[in-house]
Amino acid sequence: MKTNFLLLSVFFTATFGAAAQGLPENPDPGKCYVKCITKDEFEEVEETVEIHPAYTKLEVVPATYKTVEERVLVKEASKKLVYVPAVYETVEVPYIKKEGRTDLEIVPASFGDDTRTFEVYPQTSGWEYQTLEDCPSSNKEDCITACFVEYPAQSQDVAITTLVKDAGTTNIPVSEENATYTKKVIKEPARMDEVEIPAEYTTITRQVVETPATTTKVTVPAEYTTVTKTVLKKKGGITTWEEIDCKLLNPTILPIFYEYNSARLTPDSKRIIDERLLPILKEKNVSIELMSHTDSRGNDDYNMALSQQRAESVVNYLVSKGISRSRLIAKGYGETRLVNRCSNGVECSEAEHQKNRRTEFRILGN
């Protein structure tokens, strides 16, 4: 949530008129208060939009067969006599080897020819003047005649195509396949002593229709895309007062010292941020400015950019700890605010240069 912060150092000996001016009520002497004015709060939401509708396609599924086994009798049971055995004859027994089916065939639309007559020029009539060829008068105007003439309308035939029958399907019967197997039957039974002769069987295979030909519907799903938009989550404008340490209104040096030519935060630097800055930002709804500096060694423009990177490294670390980026401002000052004599061309120790590679913070007043 973005907020504007108005700082006010309040040193009251009495609270008369504070409420009328919108100031904190019952302030303590020597205390400072920050005025927090909240702004509108927004959030990004995703909305799914259909970019292509779902539709249905038809597909023809042909008939399928399965192979089955069937146990058939090939020799009937009988009895035989001891002295006169039975006499058999062989016969052919028909059976359906493959059942018939019905296939589907697409019949395209058919068209016919026709002719329509259109009037391309309407019927007209009017007067026409003619001069007689054998005019007896020397004045030709005496031989002019007026005739009322009619001309018939003119028409034109145009060939057109008509729909005779729309597309459809036709059934195509496929005949079954027949076959026979041989079978022995008794022609003459045995006589005298009867002896049982068991029947004989065999197994045949044949194909039968498992599923007839059909049409199926294939649904092609709709296509969607995601649109991200920003919407108002919470209306701002609420004003609150929070007590703040007056010393935090001025730049406060954090003991965060960087390595030469580096913006990387060391583990010790992160520990200092956790101990010094995080409690303030979590307990108070305030904004802070982070000001980073370099020593004088190196190019001035490069040092300005490096100091900005150092300030932003602190901001990024605080954001990783859950602090809103809108409450943090990073500002690099390069070598423009040295804390000692170690300016350009001055011989200094590494410890003296390190003091200038620092980060400061202060509570903001906007």
TrEMBL record:
Domain (OmpA-like): residue spans on this chain: 245-366
Broad class of where this protein is predominantly found: membrane
Compartment(s) where it occurs, according to its Swiss-Prot or TrEMBL record: Cell outer membrane
InterPro entries for the chain: Bact_OuterMem_StrucFunc (IPR050330), OMP_bac (IPR006664), OmpA-like (IPR006665), OmpA-like_sf (IPR036737)
Signal peptide residues on this chain, from the entry's feature table: 1-20
One Gene Ontology term, aspect cellular component: cell outer membrane
Keywords per UniProt: Cell outer membrane, Membrane, Signal
Annotated transmembrane regions: none
Xref: PROSITE patterns: OMPA_2
Classification via Gene3D superfamilies: OmpA-like domain
Protein name in UniProt: OmpA family protein
